[in-house]
């Protein structure tokens, strides 16, 4: 079974993925695949430079993700252009890796993808888990985690599909507005459900 794991920025998706990995799931991260497709010398990185200029490169000619983020999060058209250039390459790589994991008969594969719905990648998975969070707590965590001011943090949150829309399309929901202990308890409950319903 492939479980798609998504949620909005600072919701705790990666933490949920790590907790599932500790319990025995195999995690494939779309963010890791995204970094792979823009490796120095890659065709996708060349296309990004052509689109956005060489100011998105660091001194080693690798992608400066922070500089690119500054460009796209303030400009919906730039964000759309970034997605057009990167999503097909990520999709191809994800399909290859997921096919290999399925062939290995791994019982639970978690595909962690922040843009699962935006990239129409839910067809790649069997079921979807959405991590939700109280918006006030989300804003606080994002500002504390990334050092953003309030306006920058709100702009990044606002650039994403509303979490209510994602939650409405989920098979499973985990709320990460509480403590780590609360989150671990919710993951344990999900793990039990998945084992009972899908893995036995």
Explain this structure to me?
This protein is an alpha/beta fold. It has helices spanning 13-22, 30-37, 43-52, 65-73, 76-103, 135-146, 150-158, 163-168, 180-199, and strands at 2-7, 26-29, 109-112, 127-132, 172-175. Helix 2 (30-37) crosses helix 5 and helix 3 packs antiparallel against helix 5 (76-103).
The CATH architecture would be 3-Layer(aba) Sandwich
CA gyration radius, whole angstroms: 17 Å
> CATH first level: which class?
Alpha Beta
The overall average pLDDT, rounded, is 93
Task: Bin the helical content.
Answer: 55-70%
What's the SSE pattern? EHEHHHHEEHHHEH
Class based on secondary structure composition and strand pairing: alpha/beta
Tags for this entry?
5 strands; five-stranded parallel sheet; disordered C terminus; 9 helices; single chain; alpha/beta
Secondary-structure blueprint of this entry?
Blueprint: E1 2-7, H1 13-22, E2 26-29, H2 30-37, H3 43-52, H4 65-73, H5 76-103, E3 109-112, E4 127-132, H6 135-146, H7 150-158, H8 163-168, E5 172-175, H9 180-199
Parallel strand pairs: 1-3, 1-4, 2-3, 4-5
Helix pairs in contact: 2-5, 3-5
In short:
The protein is an alpha/beta fold and 200 residues long. Helix content is 56%, strand content 12%.
């Amino acid at each position: 079974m492939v479980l798609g794991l998504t949620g909005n920025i600072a919701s705790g998706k990666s933490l949920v993925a790590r907790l599932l990995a500790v319990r025995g799931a195999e995690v494939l991260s779309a963010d890791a695949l995204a970094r792979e497709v823009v490796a120095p010398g890659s065709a996708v990185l060349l296309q990004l430079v052509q689109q956005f200029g060489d100011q998105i490169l660091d001194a080693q000619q690798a992608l400066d993700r922070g500089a690119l983020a500054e460009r796209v999060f303030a400009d919906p058209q730039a964000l759309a252009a970034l997605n057009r250039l990167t999503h097909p390459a990520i999709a191809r790589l994800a399909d290859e890796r997921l096919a290999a994991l399925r062939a290995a008969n791994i019982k639970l594969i978690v595909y962690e993808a922040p843009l699962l719905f935006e990239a129409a990648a839910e067809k790649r998975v069997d079921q979807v888990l959405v991590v939700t969070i109280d918006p006030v707590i989300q804003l606080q965590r994002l500002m504390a985690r990334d050092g953003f001011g309030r306006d920058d943090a709100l702009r990044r949150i606002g650039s994403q599909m509303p979490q209510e829309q994602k939650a409405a399309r989920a098979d499973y929901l985990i709320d990460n507005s509480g403590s780590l202990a609360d989150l671990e308890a919710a993951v344990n409950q999900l793990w039990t459900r998945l084992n009972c319903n899908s893995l036995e």
